[in-house]
Each structure stands twice: as C-alpha cells, then as structure tokens.
Amino acid sequence: MTDNSVKSPPTLDDAISLSRWARGLGPEDLARARQGIIERSIPAGGFICRQGEMPNCWLGIIDGLAKMSSDWVTGKTASYAGIPTGGWFGEGSVMKTEPRRYDVIALRDTRVACMKRETFHWLLNNSIPFNHAIIEQINERLGQFIGLLESERLHDTDTRVARSLSIMFNPVLYPGQNATLSISQEEIGHLAGVSRQRVNRSLKLLEDAGFVRIEYGGIAILDLDGLRRFGG
C-alpha cells in the first residue's frame, strides 16, 4: 500500500529541538532560549538579512532554502553557500556586533527563526554546552569557506556544482537532511553561480558517475563521499 500522507511542515519548536545547539541545554536554559526566539516569513527573492546592516539576532532556517552571497563593487555577485532547512548562521556577526558582510536571500518562500542578540549572548555567558556548539559551528563554517575558495579558484564548473550540493549535507551546520534534496536546477544555479542550463549538464555528468540521481522536484544523493571528492 502506498503512503499518500503529506508530511506537515516543521514548526518553530521542531526547528529548535532538532538543532545541535539545543541538544545540550537543560530545561531552564532551553526555555529561556525559546522565549528569545521569534519566527519570520520571507517570500522567495526577499532578503533575510542584508550586507551592511547591524545584526540584532542569530538566524536559523525553519523551512525553506536561502543563499548567502555578497555583491562586489564590480557588479559581480559572489555566492558563498546554500542554507537549507535546519541551518543556523550569522553567529560571527552577532558575537562581534559588526555590520553583516553578506546578504542572505530566500530562494523560495522561507520561514526563519530569529534568536534575539540578548538571548544569544546570555547563552554564551551562561551555558558551556551552547559555547561548545557555537565553537564547533564556527570551525565547520571556516572549513566550508576554505573549501569554497579552493573550488572557486582551482576547480571547474562541474566541481562547483558538486560542492554546492555536498555542502548542504554538513551534519554540523545543517543537521537532519534527507538523502533526497528538494531543490530545483534553477536554485542550484543560484548557489553555484552558473546558469540552469549549465547545471543540467553538470548534474547529468554527476548522475552518469553514480553520485546523484535526478528526480522530479529534487536530487537524490547516492554517493555523498564521492560527491565531496569530485574533482579534488
């Protein structure tokens, strides 16, 4: 019998309970964190946060997909990473209280969790498990950006597409991802900084190599380790 049930979208409480930073918190600290988090809805193409603005909260994706990027004075846009459901970001800007150095744009209708800056700093000052989670996240983010820089300078378009997909399966930054990524070829193009037509060519190459399978409305990841090593 086929299961035709439709999975309900995650709630804000679901997003918090599935977050790595929440797993080590005691009931009182978790309750305080929950009180300091609100939800926002951002339409496709809208800004979740803007380059140059002062941060007033730490951000997480409850449901949706976003792109972290920045516009250069030359008019070129640099795409840094996709942020899928379950990803939290912007901790560096909140900790340093400096203007954000990037834009984060919703690639589809996206629901965002916003932890107030005051709550974030209270947890930093009072929770060792929260500190450990943030340190781990910053370390993973650094490794991610080093890999992106290497890919941009040394690798071809096919490798950039492969890396853009594999990045979204980082278990620290984006926990709980399914083996099938619900993403369009146009969205992959936004993340990799290439056209949808060029993404299609790259995906067919990756499919022929046995790393992915192109499905209706998404990409099934068959060999994540191979995808991460592709072109390297």
Order of helices and strands: HHEEEEEEHEEHHHEHHEEH
Low-confidence stretches: 1-5
User: In whole angstroms, how far apart are the ends?
Assistant: 43 Å
Find the CATH superfamily of the largest domain. Jelly Rolls
What class would the helix/strand composition place it in?
alpha+beta
CATH class of the largest domain: Mainly Beta
How many individual helices?
A: 9
Q: Give the tally of β-strands.
A: 11
Overall pLDDT confidence: 87
Helix content estimate? 40-55%
Strand residues, percent: 15-25%
Largest sheet: 4 strands, antiparallel
Number of domains: 2
| CATH fold topology of the largest domain | Jelly Rolls
Structural shape: globular
> Taking strands numbered 1, 2, ... along the chain, how are they ordered across the largest sheet?
1-8-3-6
Radius of gyration over all CA atoms, rounded: 18 Å
The CATH architecture of the largest domain would be Sandwich
